[in-house]
Automatic annotation (TrEMBL):
InterPro entries: DCC1-like (IPR007263), DCC_oxidoreductase (IPR052927). Coiled coil: none annotated. It comes from Pontibacter oryzae. One of its GO terms (molecular function) is protein-disulfide reductase activity. It holds the Pfam family DCC1-like. This is DUF393 domain-containing protein. PANTHER family: DUF393 DOMAIN-CONTAINING PROTEIN (PTHR33639:SF2), THIOL-DISULFIDE OXIDOREDUCTASE DCC (PTHR33639).
């Protein structure tokens, strides 16, 4: 993975994902494929990049072990992270962001159900995905 200068990443949207989760890794692959602007960066939660890039007061306690999205100095979790991330994807996936009209409590209920069962669906990996050389520059940590 590429080690970026932290100053270079200020203001860049960063997806923090569970690097041991097969479902999360597949989701990162999907995002890489449908983010033609190449403006998203990625870091496994296990990499320590979150702690280095986001101040402790901006992080939830305890940290969720699935996905976080850092954009414009703010850290989003659960369904809000996914739907804000969707805005950076190509059509038709960008349309997922319209689901923000659904109340947050219901969205997060659905998100937590999927998150609790993600290892059953896609398993657990002991290693992170290996991005292509072109994609590697977008990984932090």
């Amino acid at each position: 993975m590429t080690n970026h200068n932290l100053e270079q990443l200020q203001g860049k949207p960063i997806v923090f994902y569970d690097g041991t989760c097969g479902f999360c890794q597949a989701s990162v692959q999907l995002v890489l494929e449908y983010n033609s602007q190449h403006n998203l960066y990625f870091a496994a939660l296990q990499s320590g990049a979150l702690e280095a890039l986001v101040s402790k007061k901006k992080r939830p306690d305890p940290l969720p072990d699935s996905i976080l999205f850092f954009e414009n100095g703010k850290l989003y979790a659960e369904s809000e992270a996914v739907l804000r991330l969707a805005r950076h994807l190509d059509f038709p996936l960008s349309m997922l962001s319209v689901f923000r009209i659904i109340p947050l409590s219901f969205r997060d209920f659905v998100y937590r159900f999927v998150a609790r069962n993600r290892y059953k669906v896609a398993g657990r990996n002991q290693s992170c995905l290996l991005p292509s050389p072109e994609q590697r520059a977008r990984f932090v940590g």
